[in-house]
Design goal:
Length: 371
Amino acid sequence: MPRPRSSEFVSVINAIESTKGAFAGRVFTLDDLRSSLNGKVSTFGAGDNFLRRAVQECMMRGEVRQSAPGTYRFVGSVEESPIETPASEVEDFDAMYTPEIDPSFIMPSVLEEYLPAIQKRLEKGIDQKFRVVGPAGCGKTEGGVQVAARLGLDVLTVDCSIIREPRDFFGSRTVRDGRVVWVDSQFSKAIAKGNCMIILDEVNRCSELVGNALLPLLDSRRATLIEERGSMLRCGPGIVWWATANEGAEFTGTSAMDRAVRDRFQRTVEFTYLHPTMEINLLMERAGITKEIASNLVEVANRTRKESSGISGISQAISTRQLIAAAEDIVDVGVHSLQYTITNTYSPCGGADSERNTVANLLVGRFTAGS
């Protein structure tokens, strides 16, 4: 099932559909269009993002053409020039969606400070690139989603761990009507559209060869030649690139980020686990557990985080993602579910001295069947 767009963006699309007949054949600017829609929609998005994206969507469908920089023209009204988008093409773009703001997500202060600057640069069509690091399960990917939600941007998340060769980023060959044709990937469509957030999730799980395919897109060229496509793929205006990475020897299957790729991400944002009070409130809000249970969960998690940093033999910390799952299962299943969400994630090797037994002992006395 495709993920839904925000209701605000849909209202802008619908408003344009109902009024574009009045603009048929006329040259107009975004200001002209906004003026005609005033009173019909509640918001045009931060910096008119919803409005700009709606016009871009009309351009992709062939309903609008750009006459000159900053001016556009509708090809004609729906009645005069009916244009249909094949269902297959719509399905191909299902992975891009407009996220909703999650009020329970705690935005790092550095990102809160950056939002106005990101918005200002987006309005000028300037790309921005962030390398995002931190422990597993602390909100790196969701952070990108929530930045996009606050800016009214569409999001495409690319799971870099499944990209095996450079071509996988851009598309593939297929047979249609007896002919071999090239089909653009959702990634290619998204960057050509522009004005969106591209999340390169676990970017350091790509091989260097695969990562190198991104280099010309990430520098001033903003384009790359796809030989099988027979043309250049060019970036649309104002892309926010968000590259997450779990770094360290404990993350098998990763590699050091190629220096040339890393240099193109001029800003590095470090995520970490929340302050205990914030994490307790998050668990209470997300799962509906009591403050006492939330406090006990966070206390156990922070012990593992401290001890996994080298003070003792515990090899991994309990992440915020694990805590949320544990809290939800306590509500739905009971405290005995901690065996599956917490203790069983650790090795039983070593018997009484095993990591599993050590963590189980941290839970003893903090949780009872009636809690």
